[in-house]
């Protein structure tokens, strides 16, 4: 197992669960620390903020918050299968709110990118997406706009 590069506090598990609004009964520390989850989330942030290790003050806080959001974004799509929609007992009935977890994932990625954008050493405009879930139509639209801007 690789050592965490950004998420090094004792509270990061709870912070990630907090971003998703779930408890340890839904997502375990092992789920969060999985090789296909936490290291990937951190790597995506590091790709956008290569000097992350030298950051201090609020920049360090922003990169940490971005990593929390990115890891939560990776976990979000699997939530639908983990959370029971309805729980019934003799004395009560409880229904979870219907959450579009793919939508939630996209919002968490946007939030992570927002934190990255606040870091003073990050370039204001980057053409490489940090994490993309859009279909080919958005890419075509972006290219069309780039061509129109180039031809003007």
What does this 3D model show about the protein?
- The structure is a single chain.
- The chain is mainly α and 152 residues long.
- The chain has one domain (11-118).
- It is 54% helix and 4% strand.
- The protein contains seven helices and two strands.
- The chain has a two-stranded antiparallel ribbon with strand order 1-2.
- Helix 1 (12-20) crosses helix 4 (57-75) and helix 4 (57-75) packs antiparallel against helix 6 (101-118).
- The mean pLDDT is 83.
What labels would you give this structure?
152 residues, mainly alpha, two-stranded antiparallel sheet, 7 helices, 2 strands, 54% helix
Coarse morphology: globular
Describe the main β-sheet briefly: 2 strands, antiparallel
The secondary structure category is mainly alpha
Low-confidence stretches: none
Spatial sequence of strands, sheet with the most strands: 1-2
Task: Give the topology.
Layout: H1 12-20, H2 29-33, H3 38-48, H4 57-75, H5 79-82, E1 86-88, E2 93-95, H6 101-118, H7 136-151
Antiparallel strand pairs: 1-2
Helix pairs in contact: 1-4, 3-4, 4-6
Characterize this entry briefly:
With 152 residues, the protein is mostly helical. 54% of the residues lie in helices and 4% in strands.
